[in-house]
Structures are given as C-alpha cells and as structure tokens.
Amino acid sequence: MKKQLHRIVLIGFAIAILPAATGCETVHNLQSNDQSGAAATPAVTSNTNKPAPSTPDPDRSAAVSSNGEEPSDMVKEKPQVSPDKAYRVSKPTLMGATLGTPKEEVLNLFGKARNTFIMDEDPQAVTVYEYPDFSIGFNVFDRLEFIQVLSPDIDPGLSGLHLGDSIGEALNVLGKPDNRTDYVLAYKALNTILKLDVDPGSGTIKSIKLFPAS
C-alpha cells in the first residue's frame, strides 16, 4: 500500500513540473528564432548624408558671339577730280572715271550707292547705281557703261564747267560740238559721246552724261 502511494506522489510531481519545462523550451526557441531573424536581415544604411554628384557647368563657348560689325562703305557724295583725270579728247572721262572700268574699281572711287535698279528696256540690261548728285551704270560684264551728273555741286572734271553754266561757257571750254540742237550739245571722242542737255529757255546746262557711241 505504501509503495502504491509513493508511486502516485512521484507521478503527480512529474505532471506538475512538465508544463514548466515545456514553457522554458518554448521561450528558448523564440529567442533563437529572433536572433536568427536579426542575423538574416541586412542592415539598412542611409545615404542621406552622402553628397550628390556635382553637375558640370554647361559649355558656354558656343554661346559667345562677336558683336563686331563689318564697316559699311560710306557714300562719297562729292568726289574730287584731279587734273590728270579731267576730260580730254584723247582720254574721255567724266568725274575722273573712264568707260569700261571694272565695277569694283569704280565703286572704290565713288563709294556705296543710295539705290540700285536694272534698266530692262536696253538690249543688254544695265544696272544703275544712284547717288545723291549723280548716277552710274554697269553692263552685264560689270564694266562702267555710263556716268551722268545731275547736280551743280558735282565737279564733272570738264575744266571748271558745271551744271547751270551757260551754253556759251560750254562752247568756250569744250569747243564746237559734233552735234547741236536746241536741247543737246554732243561731243564724240574715242567711241564715246559726251552729251550736255540744255534748257533752251534759260540757255543753261541741265545734265551731263558720258556713254558709249552706238
């Protein structure tokens, strides 16, 4: 009887300590799982303090432009005629220029024109360059085709003869014309014609023009 009672006590004691042992094992397993999870999760490193890569400045060399301006040719309104460039029968000129002279050379003498246009009515088109007091024309070969004086302020290079002077003064300077009408005095020299338009009422010179003889 005592042996049975002793066995019952031992069995009860074993039953009493079994839950406590199970609880300790559960806690141990949970701690192990927590440590394993912490080891498996990589640490997150913040890059907020890392400086951002610098952006290079744009190349501004292409945006730099020159403000320099090409100098424009000035209009030489009243060119002076030297004595060696004056009109002669052996070398007919007007305003010191000779017919057939290249355009570049003529424009260097007179400067930039105020206006240009093309005379289409001529058999060969002539490009006219207008200046304040005179005009010139170039043929299709860019050679001087004519010169016309339109103002008394311009020196034609005719030994002092100017627009507004009398017919008598023209005859004294240039001599007898090859052709003469009430409106025109014309002088021929080396395939050129020097034409003086006159006003029959006042007897004065209205314009002077040098052009090729046809």
From TrEMBL:
Residues 1-23 form the signal peptide. It comes from Paenibacillus lutrae. It comes from the Bacteria. Residues 33-87 are annotated as: Disordered. The keyword Signal applies. Keywords: Signal. Residues 33-52 have a biased composition (Polar residues). This is Lipoprotein. PROSITE patterns: PROKAR_LIPOPROTEIN.
